[in-house]
Amino acid sequence: MSENHYDAYKNMTDKQKNRTIWNVITASSLGTLIEWYDFYIFGSLAVVLATKFFPADNPTAAFLSTLATFAAGFVVRPFGALFFGRLGDIIGRKYTFLVTLLIMGFSTFLIGCIPSYETIGFMAPVLVLILRLLQGLALGGEYGGAATYVAEYAQPNRRGYWTSWIQTTATAGLFISLIVILVTKTSLSAEEFDGWGWRVPFWISILMVGVSYIIRKNMKESPLFAKAKSEGKTSKNPLKESFGHKLNFKFVLLALFGAAMGQGVIWYTGQFYAMSFLQKVMNVESAQVDSLMATALFLGTPFFVFFGWLSDKIGRKAVMLTGMLVAILAYRPIYDSMFKSVSLENKTIVTNGITEKRTAKVHDKITADSLVTFHKETLYTDGTLIKKDSVVHWSPNGPVIKDGKAEEPKVSQSVKLADDTKWYLVFLVFIQVIFVTMVYGPIAAFLVEMFPVRIRYTSMSLPYHIGNGVFGGLLPAVATYLVTTGKEAGHATWYLEGLWYPIGVATVCLLIGLFYLKNKNNNIHD
User: Please, are residues 467 and 263 in contact by the beta-carbon 8 Å criterion?
Assistant: First the structure.
């Protein structure tokens, strides 16, 4: 690309520019959406993956290990931001996020091919971790490239609106991952999905990546970067300029602690922690959680664009910090209402509403032993259905003795929600998605406007991915740990303990942003 590309774009009519930027957004968003899909199917299937890639003797530890592996992908995102951000500022935006797309796609596909823990032992979690780290590195380079690319095509007074379309891809990727999982689950029996069907969402990604690669390959470099490159104004050492220059490094820190950090924890609370809370704390049926989350995300996604547009009118700071403040104040009442919506205290069991049955099958590893399942279903007058399974290990001589006493049964319980309760929970999750759209819709434009063209990819990528990858990505694991320890300690509101992490981080971010961020949007440093 040369300066001719910049001049040609500059001389276009507004109508031609709009048509061009829609093509740019479509190409950028499709690839970014697919990368988010790839990244999030791991989180969406965390409950299933815990039983496949980790030892099954301690379900809670296995689930925490899965969340830790999920979080590992987030923790390395800043390193991907540094590596690919540097490449993007030296050789260009287009080629860099072509590479990130391919790395993400193949890593995701291979996760779906890894044999289970029962087959290859500890190599299973090791291989998953390696591929998860590659996913994180790829995503670290993807988002900054896409956001920068769109912003450098956008008209200055509409930058919040145009870049907000990129912001929809994260939620849309999660939404599509839930839909694919839901379709796969309903197309297969429970045994088939548990046996091999959970791999299908991972395999599907390779097809989507192929289509996106073809589209991205035909894209042109951004006009602003093309102009800078033709004039010899690109950086030879973006890392040194971004973080070695005191003034610019101050802006990197301000972007992180005054915006991205709070945005990250609110994003993951409103989407991933909400899903984890429904599954693991409230024990809602997995299929209902997927459909409930998908509905709330679908309804909330257009608000990314609305708040991006609004930030062009009243400023990025006002929109983002308002979102943080409302979330901080509302999280505990919202999650308290969520938890109490499935409380059985005020529910009445229907006449003959309890059914019980016992089944037995040969033990998977000890052929002389059996696994006896005691299944109980309780139906309530409002339509709520509680299913409880107790699996007992039984030997020819009776219950299996372990450490001098009968082995503890493995107990699992699920709640099938009544329709009224389901829609109430959709509403409560939707409110959280609105908080997400307020802080996330404007942030791409906010970050892009803080840094000049020559080091923009590198400088904006690092605070974004530390805020989201580290502070946000650690949230599910940290919050689950806080809930578990709170329950063991006997706290009355143990189910709310996990919220102290996002509330604390967002409060610190709000105060820093309130005092140190400018009220007026910056002009882009062209």
Answer: yes
Alpha carbon separation from 340 to 281, 337, 363, 490 (Å, rounded):
11, 5, 38, 17
Could you give the CA distance from residue 63 to residue 281 in angstroms, rounded to a whole number?
13
Report pLDDT digits (tens) over 446-458.
Answer: 998 888 878 888 8
Token pair for 246: 């005191």
What are the DSSP calls for 443-497, one per residue?
HHHHHHTTS-GGGHHHHHHHHHHIIIIIIITTHHHHHHHHHHHHHHTT-TTGGGG
The Cα 310–Cα 290 span in angstroms is 30
Element (H, E) at 385: strand 385-395
Give the C-alpha separation, 396 to 366, whole Å.
11
Detail the DSSP E strand segments found in 283-346: none
Structure tokens at 10: 């500059």
Q: For residue 249, give the 3-state DSSP assignment.
A: helix
CA distance 78 to 466: 6
pLDDT in tens, 101-117: 888 888 889 989 999 88
Burial class (CB in 10 A: 0-12, 13-18, 19+), 62: buried
Nearest by Cα to 465 from 230, 143, 129? 143
Question: Can you list the alpha helix ranges (DSSP code H) found in 45-151?
Answer: 46-53, 59-75, 77-90, 93-111, 117-120, 123-151
Cα 318 to Cα 322: distance, rounded to the nearest angstrom: 6
Q: Which amino acid is at 389?
A: D
Question: CA-CA distance, 39 to 35, in Å (whole number)?
Answer: 6
For 490: left if phi > 0, alpha if psi spans -120 to 50, otherwise beta; the answer is left
Q: For residue range 396-427, list pLDDT tens digits in order.
A: 777 777 777 777 778 888 888 888 999 999 99
The pTM assigned to this predicted structure is 0.81
Q: Token pair 């592996």 is at which residue? A: 69
Give 515: exposed, middle or buried? Use CB within 10 Å, 0-12, 13-18, 19+: exposed
For residue 65, is pLDDT > 50?
yes
Extract the tokens encoding 150. 């769109």
Contact present, 455 and 236 (Cβ < 8 Å): no
CA pair distance 65, 42, nearest whole angstrom: 13
CA–CA distances in Å: residue 274 to residues 252, 374, 417, 496: 30, 30, 16, 12
